[in-house]
Amino acid sequence: MTIPFYVSPEQLTKDRSDFARAGVARGRAVVVLSAAEGMVLATVNPSRSLHKIAELYDRIAFAGVGKYNEFEALRRAGVRYADLRGYAYDRVDVDARGLAGAYAETLGEVFTGHPKPFEVELALAEVGDVPGADRVFRIGFDGSVQDGEALVVIGGHASEVTAGLHAAGVHAAPDSAPPPLATALRAIANTLVPAPDFANDDAAAPGTSRSLAPESGAYSTLECALLDRTATRRSFRRLTSSQMVELAVE
Description:
It contains six helices and ten strands. The chain has helices spanning 9-25, 68-88, 96-113, 158-167, 181-192, 241-247, and strands at residues 30-34, 38-44, 53-57, 60-66, 120-126, 135-139, 145-148, 151-154, 222-228, 236-239. The longest helix has 21 residues, at 68-88. A hairpin with a 5-residue loop joins strand 6 (135-139) and strand 7. It is α+β, with helices and mostly antiparallel strands.
């Protein structure tokens, strides 16, 4: 009789965490930021069709980092969950907290019960009527959930991007007023898109802020969406590079 190879639960959990964390770190950071006009979601994405940011329901947006096929499957599952709940009960009963709980349950089960965990990190943003009512939830590959503040960054170089946004004057303190949309877009472009001096430097990482306003070409590499708090029902709209340039001018 062959004795099965033994791995302690602690070592197995650590190995799975290291594996999933490495996959997430390879993904480019996604910024979720509460602004005066609504909630901004942005990331550097060279693809025009494979989106990392998408509408989930009326006032809820989804962002994923990691393996595209995995977070895209989770996005579709979230859309089905929201549609069924809104149909069975009421549209106002669909909120980001309930979706975050469903995602946490799914990712937790995969992490503990499947041979390979999902290499993803998710963010759910729900815009409120006022900035203080905005909600952001960060869901990890192991099913952990964090109730975010006005600024949440997921994916690779998250700490550097957060520091860059703070240096650009964007803060997540609950007692601070949210920045105007123009300020938020300029800070995001400054932080996510490397400065021209580092454009050919493979070692350059996001979070290196420019000292001047970003050029209009910096916005062409961004995938960006706005949850407009003034919308009556569906608040999600994608922003093209030309729209970002126009909105970034105060």
